[in-house]
Structure formats: structure tokens, C-alpha cells
Amino acid sequence: MVGTVLMAKSLSDIAGLPLEARRVRNEEKVLRQYGTRLDVDEFREILLYVNSVGLSTSHTSCTKTEFVLSMLLKLEKVDRDDISRCAEVFNSLDVHADGRLDAGDLRLPDDVGNRLRRGNTVV
């Protein structure tokens, strides 16, 4: 019984080698698709993609975070649901809804919160 399971596992691993090699090649292709310099068409493609997947509403720029998330989506390392769930957590922590987490978003005892707001460190 154990031998049969081990044999099946071995055959599965061997069969998966070409698929893994293909996955690695595809990842490299995605990561290298823009080279070291962007042309106008590549820039337009990036802006269209980050807008189409809901990462941005800008038609003139793309932030580093938007670019990284778009690459992770293309690499299928994350999906839109993963990003949405993380954004929901962020939004629940972003008390002032300003798109940034800072000392004003902390729920701390008054003395610690006051020190942070004055620029003092707590640690």
C-alpha cells in the first residue's frame, strides 16, 4: 500500500516537471516584458491594465504599488478577491479614510496617542 502511494507520488512529481518549467518561463516572460525602459505603447498598456482590474482610476500615472499588484495579478500569485479582502482590512484600519495609515488611525490610550501625534516615538 505504501509503495503504491510513493510510486503514484513519484510519477505525479515527474509529470509535473514540464508544467513547472513552463510556469517559470512564463513568469520570467511577464517580469521581463517591459525590459528596462518603457515606450509609449507599454505605458499605455500598463495604465489600461491597472484601470481595467480596478487598481487605479488615473489615466496619466501608475504608482509603484499599482504596478506591483498588477504584476502579481498577471503572474497569478494573487487574484482580485485577495486584493479586495486586503483592501477591506486596510479600510477598516484607516479611521480617517485618507488612504494612509498613520498615528491618527491608531486606537491607543490617550497618553500614548498624544505622544505619537506630537511626533514622539512610543517604542
Question: Which labels suit this protein?
Answer:
123 residues; 5 helices
Account of the 3D structure:
The chain is flat and about 65 Å long. By secondary structure, the protein is mainly α. The relative contact order is 0.06. It has helices spanning 2-32, 40-52, 64-74, 80-93, 110-117.
In total, the number of strands is 0
Proportion of beta-strand residues = under 5%
Mean pLDDT value:
83
Unreliable stretches covering 5 or more consecutive residues: none
| Percent in helix | 55-70%
Radius of gyration: 22 Å
N- to C-terminal distance: 57 Å
Please write the string of helix (H) and strand (E) elements. HHHHH
Helix count equals: 5
Largest sheet: none
Going by helix content, strand content and strand pairing, the class is mainly alpha
Sum up the overall morphology in one term: flat
Helices, strands, pairings?
Layout: H1 2-32, H2 40-52, H3 64-74, H4 80-93, H5 110-117
Summarize the structure in short:
Helix content is 63%, strand content 0%.
